[in-house]
Amino acid sequence: MNAFYLGYEKFYVSVDCVCLGFKGSTLYTLITKRKFEPLIGEDSLMGGFVHPDENLEQAATRVVAEYTGIEGVYLEQVGAYGDVGRDTGERVISVAYYALIDMELFNEDLYEVHDTRWHNVNQINTLIFDHRVILADAVEILRKKAANRPIGFNLLPEKFTLPQLQLLYEAIYNTTLDKRNFRKKILDMDILEKQEDKDKSSSKRGAFYYTFNKKKYDQLLQRGYYFSL
Q: What CATH number labels 150-222?
């Protein structure tokens, strides 16, 4: 080891993951019960220490897969959190990520394994350490990105209806959108493929399913146009 490093204290590096999901008309985040002291049994985001053989994104990917059973999810860094007293157990610097989860793919067997539950992001009361700050920062980044990037589709199943899509964006922005304007904007971009089958779970008439066409979106970018809601 380089002698220069020996004069400095060592401390821990962790990742904390905000797993966001959508169902019905609500934006959710996955919450777990902390398994060790300090604050054992308290509500927490998913997290873990970075292993010596992995980088930050690999660590976050591992944590998300461990708690959800899903690999290959949309993942983006939120920021680094390093207040000296943020973790009352040891000196820990955390790098936070948010992951967008299709809740239909979530492995429900993991609820019991990790003592987790999905919780409305607008009804979170207490989380350990600075996890509420991390959650708020993640949702704010999602809101900024979702307005000009089609990342919201990662929260939906492969096939979805226009009412589902509108409910998603209303949940992200915690507001009500005009149905006619929303549909005109999204359809005018020509990045959705209308399917032949319908969702008839809420009405006899039903609503056609759509899929997101990434190839068309990439072509849109090449022409200098951007996703915008």
A: 1.10.10.10
